[in-house]
Specification:
100 residues, mainly alpha, 6 helices, globular
């Protein structure tokens, strides 16, 4: 039952990222909007944190999703916040617009 709640949480974070990315037409626009930038980064971190909690059964079921990369992104955000490459965050968030 926990997996269902975790997946719902991940979807919620994804929807928030999509909302924050509305109007972010370029990397330059995104970089200038610190509130949205921080909100996107926080939600990406939360997705990774929640993905870590998924059962092995669900991880196998969603094997087409690279959960290790998602969790790795979370670790990078948590431990290297000042060193985050904003262009990569923008690319990830932009991809989420079409895949979430």
């Amino acid at each position: 039952m926990k997996d269902k709640a975790y997946i719902e949480r991940i979807v919620t974070y994804c929807k928030k990222i999509n909302k924050y990315m509305e109007g972010m037409t370029s990397l330059e626009v995104f970089e200038k909007n610190e509130l949205y930038l921080d909100a996107v980064i926080l939600n990406l971190e939360q997705i990774g944190e929640t993905a870590k909690k998924l059962s092995d059964k669900i991880k196998v079921q969603y094997s087409n999703t690279d959960l290790n990369m998602i969790i790795g992104l979370r670790n990078m955000i948590s431990h290297e916040y000042e060193g985050i490459n904003i262009a990569i965050i923008f690319d990830i968030a932009t991809l989420m617009l079409t895949n979430c």
